[in-house]
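Aim 2 progress update. The chain analyzed this quarter is reproduced below.
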Amino acid sequence: MLSKLPPRERQIVDLLYEHGEMAVSDICDALPVQLSGSAVRAMLKRLEDKGVVRRTESERGFLFSPAVADSVARKSALSDVVRVFFNGSPAGAATALLGMSDRLDTNELDQIEAMIARARAAKQTKAKQVKGGQ
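Predicted structure tokens:
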């Protein structure tokens, strides 16, 4: 979804994920390349039409924020990375991440172990439900 956006539109969406709600002037100030307010408003309108950004009214004028929860956007982006770089294999992606274990602290490794245990338990529960339903 987000990977298909043009680079400038993607920069705007990334800013909104990073900072939360922003006014056009704040977006203009935060962009690495100076763009006019009208150019940013035009891109925000396109992003709104695509369903990527939403706007709300405030005392400051319109505030813009991502329309998709960051967890959904992360999952979509990660799915694209797994599909493109790891031939659709989540295990291949996990192996690559674990290959960077020198960058992981003990807490992060514990979190990964706990997530694997939860995934394994959920898989076993689902298998039992399918088997019991036959």
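The CA atoms of residues 79 and 88 lie 8 Å apart. The first strand starts at residue 53 and ends at 58. These observations will guide the mutagenesis experiments scheduled for the next reporting period.
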